[in-house]
């Protein structure tokens, strides 16, 4: 049989009329997902409960809060709930698989589908001069050098080179005071990584988020008042689930400032609103009343975890 080459125009013209009609009336695919469960593999069980924002797996205020399956090179890397009004993430959730050392490009990226649902799901390089309508841009962070682009899913936690690159998207970052980001927050991340590597076989689930304030940079991007982070993993060594929580005020800090290890229950209490309970890991076996620093001397020593002094234990910290 002889093959005949046809131009694209001729091929188009030979399509049946019914197919042409279907193509012309097919609706544009909305590439923003509606449910966090559609971003599989990054949640321990059900999505977090965030009062007034994400309750019983449903978004409150869909025009403002968007679920992003953070995608790079056609592969989903982690999931973020993003606040398009404050232009910062509410939280990022991710699975730790044993972050290795090494470097990767840190050119900051943006989420094209937030600007137009017809755009590609893959994150793309940020235009350094563009002011985006629904998310922060590189230019926003250049107006105030006191703040770093603070990762929620840490660059150092990502496993592969492409995973590392994917963390450098501005939908995974908040304006974080430089001394806080490079001080107690960085030390906390290193200690949690130590726990996951040594006691959880290099695997665990994390949720990291930010509480907005009334401050902004460039009159556009909210400066969080507090950053918080939680982890939960199964420890084969201890033969049980272990978990802890951390939070700190996003302010200038002195050298040596420590971020203490707390229980999930303590964080839940602080982020709950009236009768609506915050939960990072709903319906799981993650312990609410114990933390690894106080309950496991070996973990405390091997990962150099400071223990919170009993004075003031349990006192409320103003998160606003």
UniProtKB/TrEMBL annotation:
Q: Which Gene3D superfamilies match?
A: Extracellular Endonuclease, subunit A
Question: Which Pfam families does this one have?
Answer: Endonuclease_NS (PF01223)
Looking up SMART domains in the UniProt record yields:
Endonuclease_NS (SM00892), NUC (SM00477)
User: What molecular function terms (GO) are annotated for this protein?
Assistant: hydrolase activity; metal ion binding; nucleic acid binding
Q: Which keywords accompany this UniProt record?
A: Signal
DNA/RNA non-specific endonuclease/pyrophosphatase/phosphodiesterase domain location: 74-271
List residues of the ENPP1-3/EXOG-like endonuclease/phosphodiesterase domain: 75-280
So which residues are the signal peptide here? 1-30
SUPFAM superfamilies xrefs: His-Me finger endonucleases (SSF54060)
Q: Can you name this protein?
A: Endonuclease domain-containing 1 protein-like
Could you tell me which species this protein originates from? Anabas testudineus
């Amino acid at each position: 049989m002889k093959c005949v080459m046809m131009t694209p125009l001729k091929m188009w013209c030979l399509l049946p009329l019914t197919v042409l009609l279907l193509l012309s009336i097919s609706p544009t695919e909305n590439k923003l997902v509606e449910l966090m469960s559609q971003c599989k593999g990054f949640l321990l069980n059900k999505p977090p409960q965030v009062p007034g924002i994400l309750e019983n797996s449903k978004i409150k205020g869909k025009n403002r809060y968007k679920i992003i399956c953070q995608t790079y090179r056609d592969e989903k890397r982690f999931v973020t709930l993003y606040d398009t009004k404050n232009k910062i993430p509410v939280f990022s959730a991710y699975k730790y698989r044993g972050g290795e050392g090494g470097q990767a490009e840190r050119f900051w990226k943006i989420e094209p589908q937030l600007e137009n649902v017809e755009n590609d799901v893959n994150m793309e390089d940020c235009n350094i001069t563009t002011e985006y309508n629904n998310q922060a841009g590189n230019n926003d962070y250049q107006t105030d050098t006191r703040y770093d682009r603070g990762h929620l899913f840490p660059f150092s936690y990502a496993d592969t080179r492409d995973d590392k690159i994917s963390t450098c998207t501005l939908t995974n970052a908040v304006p974080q005071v430089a001394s806080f980001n490079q001080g107690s927050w960085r030390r906390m991340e290193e200690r949690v990584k130590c726990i996951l590597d040594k006691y959880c076989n290099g695997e665990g689930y994390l949720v990291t988020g930010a509480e907005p304030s009334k401050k902004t940079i460039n009159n556009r991007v909210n400066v969080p008042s507090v950053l918080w982070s939680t982890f939960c993993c199964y420890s084969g060594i201890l033969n049980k689930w272990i978990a802890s929580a951390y939070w700190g005020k996003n302010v200038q800090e002195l050298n040596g400032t420590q971020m203490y290890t707390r229980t999930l229950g303590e964080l839940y209490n602080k982020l709950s609103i009236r009768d609506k309970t915050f939960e990072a890991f709903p319906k799981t076996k993650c312990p609410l009343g114990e933390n690894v620093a106080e309950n496991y001397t070996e973990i405390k020593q091997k990962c150099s975890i400071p223990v919170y002094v009993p004075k003031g234990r349990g006192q409320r910290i103003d998160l606003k």
